[in-house]
Amino acid sequence: MSDSLPYALSRARAGAAAWSMCAMVLLALLYGARALPAWPAGVAAWTAGALLWPRLDRRQKRFTLGLAASGGLALAVALWQGRAPQWSQLLTQNTALLGMLGAVSFLQLVGLHTGADALPRGERARWLTLGGVHLFGAVINMSAIFIMAERMAGGARLSPVQAAVLARGFLAAALWSPFFAAMAVALTYAPGARVGEVVLVGLPLAMGVLWLAGRMPASGASQEAIQSPFTGFPMRLSALWLPAALSVTVIAGHAWLPGWSSLGIISAAALTLALSAAVLTHGLRDGLERVLRHAEHRLPAMSGELLLFLSAGVFATGLQALFGTQAAWLPFSHVGPLQAALMLAGMMLLCALGVHAVVSIVMVSAWLAPLSPDSLLLAMIFLQCWAIGLAANPMAGVHLSLQGRFGLSALALARGNLRYCMAAYGLCVLWLAIVGLWRGWW
Length: 442
Hints:
Elements (H helix, E strand, L loop, with lengths): L10 H22 L6 H14 L5 H23 L8 H4 L2 H11 L17 H18 L1 H12 L6 H13 L8 H9 L5 H21 L7 H5 L13 H16 L5 H21 L1 H15 L4 H21 L13 H16 L4 H12 L6 H15 L7 H10 L3 H6 L2 H22 L3
């Protein structure tokens, strides 16, 4: 994503949007610290959204308008039925989530330095690349994809096999990473889920999914591409300090700040480490200038994510008002591993049809709310949908980014992951059953 705004925003409007985004991040952090209510951050988010609306392309505008309109229709029906919506949720529904995404974006300042090392080749290179994009994608998100893909392509065309390894390894981080958008969504729409427990049950599954990702070639790739030596990314052991430092900081935050929310701790850890690394690496003046440039250019570049989650908040508010506490029409009376597996299958099918995971997560959260499902179980299927379902979604951001940057077909990339996704789904169902026995969900 370019640092410059791709659409015609005046300098004053772009600056106002950047300051609104900064205010959203800081106010959401204060909300996570229990120092402020959530609505001030919501006001800042909606202000930034209004200012940044022209940046969205036609497809993004149609999608966000459709999502918000669906939520508005649900609110209207709920009012007609005599139900009282919680109007404050329009400002607060995804406030902490958006604040965390903005805070984590500053980790891009740390970067991923590769030096002039030669590109490794062979089976070992495949596994190191898979593990590398998984670890660094878990921390600096999509930036890891861009950095590694550019280096691996070497000015040429990225192969479908390389693209599959990068996309699968990156998305699998959604199963456990506290710094991934998926975790923020799961903690928002599975109320009561605790980040420590979610990470604990997500990590073993991520290891199994990564094994499948490395063992199963992309469907549709030529036999020559599959059999030729894999050209990977030159990973350095010294680069692992970033994920290690973040993990220690988050764990310490939970121990020292028990009154803070999980998303607040994650936001504070990301901001603290990013600012410290920028100053220590580049000096006080240059480091602070880099932070300000990031706030000015990169935060407004999150316009797509910002408007997506704002419209998803309207959608969620409408569904929650419409469904209320009525559960008589549900096909089951409780949610256990079997029901969760069926729900996950439906959510993944929607993903394969091009529906973003956020939409199905919001729908399932509101639909199952009257049954009060176990929060950990709910968070698990939300993260599994994101990690595996999006691998089969041609509209997923990772596929569209690879299409735009390297000319690969997003549809072909998604189709190439279908067999992998079905195998990973089977692994998820098995893991749901195992965790279900441990937790007594049966």
